[in-house]
Structure formats: structure tokens, C-alpha cells
């Protein structure tokens, strides 16, 4: 008799990182993925992508609306501010990347998302919370770092009756390695969506698109993404 799968809650934006992270556990866990609509410009496409990813890997999917989050701060993701368009050289310039990160920073986003995921994990008896935090993002986003992962796991250890762990399988990886892992685990890379601007076709010029393009090129994996400019 086939053993019953453990339950996992996934924080799934539909982006490259969260798609690969989630797919890593598709054969070992029953996955309930949460996608957040917090007023981001790419919300419609992210929700569409996340739904498609869940359908492909057999995961349950829930959309959670957080309209108030868009009203906090002045992120280019949730306001009329322009999305930065760095050059290819800027991707490896830490000062420029930090400036870009500040432009798209949404106050407390990963803290809020992961806290809500923990509530679902407790209520559903899940053993893990899956997140797409990775090393390349952690260079400029502190809420993607290994230190943040350790700290949040400690908070859950102290603040929950249940033994729940946040699992970040990409925590030591760059985007190239993430694409390679995605191919190895059978992640539906072609269904993921990374663009900050929210166009039906990826813009190809925002930082998220450019990192995606570079990752597929370096990994020598076919990129089926449609870009407006590339």
C-alpha cells in the first residue's frame, strides 16, 4: 500500500524560484500552494502562472488577497513608479542592484507571506513550508537570506505548538543552478512567470526578466519564455 504523503504549504508566486522550489517536493508531499495578490502590477499574470503550475504538478491552490499591503511604502511593484531597467552589467554591480532592490521593496512582504503560510500549516497539519528564497536574491534582498531562514524557523520553533520547518531548497543557489535543478526535478519552467511589469509577454528589460534570461542562457536550457524585448 502506498504510504500517505506528508502535507506541505508552499508560498508560490508563480515565478521561477518558487516554481522550482515547489516542484522539488511534488513527489513526496501533498502540496497546498498559496499565491498572494497584494496589488502588484504583475498580479494577474502571477495568479495565472501559479494556477497553471499547480495544475501541472497536482497541487492544491489558494489565492489570498492582501490589498492593504500595496498601500504601504512606495514600491515600484505596487505604485505608479517606473520599474527599473538595469543593464546586463548592472546585474553584477552590487550598488546598482541594491538601489534597484530598494525601488521594488514591499515592506515586510516575505514576513507576512510566511506567517500566513505558517497559519495554514498549523491548521492543515503540514510538516513543512516551501519557499523560493535563494542566494542570488539574498545579495540584495535580506528576506531571501540564509540568516532570515534560520531566524524565521526559530520563531516558528518558539511560537508554534507544531513541528513545522521552512524548507528553502534554493537557499545556496544562483539562478543558473535553479534552472538546472528545475530541469532535473521536472519543474514546469515554461509555465513560470517572472516579469515585474505584468505584461502578458515578459518585458525582457526589468531586473527579474534579465536574471531569468541570463539563467537559462548560462544553464544551457531551452527558454520557452516569450519576451517583448531581448
From TrEMBL:
Catalyzed reactions per annotation: 7-carboxy-7-carbaguanine + NH4(+) + 2 ATP = 7-cyano-7-carbaguanine + 2 AMP + 2 diphosphate + 2 H(+)
Record: residues binding ATP: 12-22
The keyword Nucleotide-binding belongs to this UniProt entry's keyword annotation: yes
Alphabetical UniProt keywords: ATP-binding, Ligase, Metal-binding, Nucleotide-binding, Zinc
Main enzyme class: ligase
Molecular function as annotated in GO: ATP binding; ligase activity, forming carbon-nitrogen bonds; zinc ion binding
Cofactor: Zn(2+)
Pathway(s) this gene product operates in, as recorded in its UniProt entry: Purine metabolism; 7-cyano-7-deazaguanine biosynthesis
Enzyme Commission number(s): 6.3.4.20
InterPro entries the UniProt entry points to: QueC, Rossmann-like_a/b/a_fold
Top-level taxon of origin: Archaea
Gene3D superfamilies associated with the record: HUPs
Sites where the protein binds Zn(2+): 195, 203, 206, 209
A Pfam family of this chain: QueC
Cofactor, free-text remark: Binds 1 zinc ion per subunit.
Family: Belongs to the QueC family.
Described function: Catalyzes the ATP-dependent conversion of 7-carboxy-7-deazaguanine (CDG) to 7-cyano-7-deazaguanine (preQ(0)).
HAMAP family: QueC (MF_01633)
Protein name: 7-cyano-7-deazaguanine synthase
Organism, as annotated: Methanobacterium spitsbergense
Amino acid at each position: 500500500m502506498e504510504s500517505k504523503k506528508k502535507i506541505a504549504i508552499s508560498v508560490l508566486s508563480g515565478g521561477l524560484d518558487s516554481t522550482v522550489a515547489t516542484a522539488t517536493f511534488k513527489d513526496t508531499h501533498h502540496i497546498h500552494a498559496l499565491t498572494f495578490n497584494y496589488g502588484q502590477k504583475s498580479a494577474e499574470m502571477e495568479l495565472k502562472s501559479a494556477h497553471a503550475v499547480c495544475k501541472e504538478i497536482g497541487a492544491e491552490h489558494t489565492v489570498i488577497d492582501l490589498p492593504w499591503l500595496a498601500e504601504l511604502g512606495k514600491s515600484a511593484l505596487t505604485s505608479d513608479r517606473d520599474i527599473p531597467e538595469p543593464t546586463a552589467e548592472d546585474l553584477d554591480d552590487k550598488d546598482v542592484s541594491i538601489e534597484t532592490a530598494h525601488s521594488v521593496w514591499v515592506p515586510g512582504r516575505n514576513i507576512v507571506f510566511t506567517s500566513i503560510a505558517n497559519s495554514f500549516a498549523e491548521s492543515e497539519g503540514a510538516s513543512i513550508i516551501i519557499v523560493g528564497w535563494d542566494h542570488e536574491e539574498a545579495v540584495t534582498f535580506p528576506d531571501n537570506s540564509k540568516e532570515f531562514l534560520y531566524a524565521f524557523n526559530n520563531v516558528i520553533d518558539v511560537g508554534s505548538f507544531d513541528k513545522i520547518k521552512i524548507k528553502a531548497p534554493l537557499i545556496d543557489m544562483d539562478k543558473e543552478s535553479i534552472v538546472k535543478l528545475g530541469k532535473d526535478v521536472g519543474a514546469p519552467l515554461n509555465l513560470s512567470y517572472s516579469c515585474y511589469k505584468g505584461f502578458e509577454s515578459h518585458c525582457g528589460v526589468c531586473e527579474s526578466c534579465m536574471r531569468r534570461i541570463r539563467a537559462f542562457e548560462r544553464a544551457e536550457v531551452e527558454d520557452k519564455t516569450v519576451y517583448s524585448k531581448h
